[in-house]
Amino acid sequence: MSSQFDPQTDAPRRSHWRTLATLLPYLWPAGRFELRLRVVVAMILLASAKVAVVYVPFLYKAAIDTLNVSADKAVVIPLGFIVAYGAARVASQAFGELRDAVFAKVGQNALRTIALEVFRHLHALSLGFHLDRRTGGLSRAIERGVKGVDFLLRFTLFNILPTLLEVVLVTGVLLINYGIDFSAITLVAVAAYIGFTLTVTEWRIKYRREMNRTDSEANTRAIDSLLNFETVKYFGNEGHEARRFDTSMASYEAAAVRSQVSLAMLNIGQGFIIAGGMCSVMLLAAYGIASGRLTIGDFVLVNTFMLQLYQPLGFLGFVYREIRQSLVDMEKMFELLGVDNDVGDQPGAPALRPTAGEVSFENVNFGYDGKRQILHDVSFRVPAGKTVAIVGPSGAGKSTISRILFRFYDVQGGRVLIDGQNVTEVSQKSLRDAIGIVPQDTVLFNDSIRYNIRYGRTDAGDGEIEAAAKLAQIHDFIGRLPDGYDAMVGERGLKLSGGEKQRVAIARTILKDPPILLFDEATSALDSHTEKEIQASLRLVSRDRTTLVIAHRLSTVVDADEIIVLDRGHIVERGRHDDLLARNGNYAEMWRRQQEQAEALERLEELEETEPPVSPTLDADAAAE
């Protein structure tokens, strides 16, 4: 079975360098010369912006020294330095904005590529994964992961790298122009700041993990409750659902408070380090002025350097915290991408080439896990153009056969053939293109009726859609709707009745026009009147097609060319309806039991229609007696 993915549990501790390394191919995409050129240009603009920033304090120093030394030239010469100072600042900002503009297409392309990869991977995973998934937590994990990627792409390249480059440039300038004391204090302060930020952030990241876990838990419970809204109402459990949701939110609240308190401690510590570094450098500069080695302009230059350095460095603390948290958010998404698909195509698997449409199960053995076997040595054949029905009690393995035919699971023994081709040796897409299904529980997309019918063949025209709807006997119903084929069906098709949803499913299958049809308990959830109408549509659709019918109500399969009786994963009987009744075995017993239930239901309905209403007065007198 598929590896388990639980969005509410902690992700395995993945190397953050490994996570960052996985992003590099998206930033340097193979075969995309334009995007690679944009990366190079963006890096040049990044470096240019930082060179301009580092040059700004020198222009400021020159203006100050000129004002201090040559008062008679103060109106002329400082004007040039001031203009140059402003130009340098504008250049720095312009280079930065151009860098962002040039790199925008690279970043958005990377984000789109990653999101598409996750989306495709989810659809490629086997049915076993999706049966176990928790939709709310899964969607939140993906949402946070994609946002984390977006943050990393924007801030890692354009905040951390530029800040580190500026640190190197500033310390180099201080070393060359003012000696080792200034550069050493600057490096020590920067190292202390970075070390303190990393240490405290690592300590407080556990609170972020707890916030993510409880957030996923609360989201899962909320979505699950809303999807089952009617059940909540039936049992009056609104208060119970609110308490469950509040329990998760209370845990999130506690983790969020601890995270905020620890963040305040981190910010205070960073403030002490920044203030200590600035004061130390300014004291050295003041001592240099007092000894005559430095000018007032040097004091201003050093102060400006430190301000320019600590401003992005202070932002670097925030960026690192957010990047660290983004990496945590991305862990779940990368864990999801690491879930293996149990059912995959063989390398170079050819497409299925359906001819007549014959289906064969040969000695099939299957179990969902090693603890319980579902099918035992099951063999049968559905000849081309014929109808074979599979019946049996609940848990006999009927629906498992449909999942195996679609290759949602691979068998542990035996093989399944379509026109002599093993389904495990052909591509899954071509296999599923050859089979049309009308399931018991038809779930529609929250879109129009037209969209849901067109889903059978997405390139179909409106005329083909209406023709399919007519064959499914739902065209007249759609025509009576105010919006016609553009009427919205609601989430999971809840605006339509069970019979209407089944007819949409039939129209969708007609539009697909497959050589093989599968009806999986297609009418078991409908009332008897609607069932008869749907059965008429199904007979029309299945004419001259290979049809496999999985049914609980035996009355729906009496005309099948062969009926196979399953019991606990074994085929216990097979034959036509009349032959099976004559044998007086399992099928005959099920038939008698269902007929008795149907007759009892009919008598009850007749009694309700013919029995006169009871007089309230007579009813009270009888009670008194």
What does this structure look like?
- It contains 19 helices and ten strands.
- 64% of the residues lie in helices and 9% in strands.
- The chain has two domains: 16-337, ABC transporter transmembrane region fold, CATH 1.20.1560; 359-434 and 514-609, P-loop containing nucleotide triphosphate hydrolases (Rossmann fold, 3-Layer(aba) Sandwich), CATH 3.40.50.300.
Query: What's the end-to-end separation, in Å?
Result: 67 Å
Class of secondary structure makeup = alpha/beta
User: Mean pLDDT score, rounded?
Assistant: 81
Annotation field: number of helices? 19
Shape: elongated
The succession of helices and strands, N to C, reads HHHHHHHHHEEEHEEHEHHHHEHEEEHHH
The gyration radius over C-alpha positions equals 36 Å
CATH superfamily of the largest domain: ABC transporter type 1, transmembrane domain
CATH architecture of the largest domain: Up-down Bundle
Helix percentage range: 55-70%
Number of strands: 10
Number of domains: 2
Most strands sheet: 6 strands, mixed
What is the name of the CATH class of the largest domain?
Mainly Alpha
- Strand residue percentage: 5-15%
Largest sheet strand order? 6-7-8-3-9-10
CATH fold call of the largest domain: ABC transporter transmembrane region fold
Q: Any low-confidence stretches, pLDDT <50, length ≥5?
A: 614-625
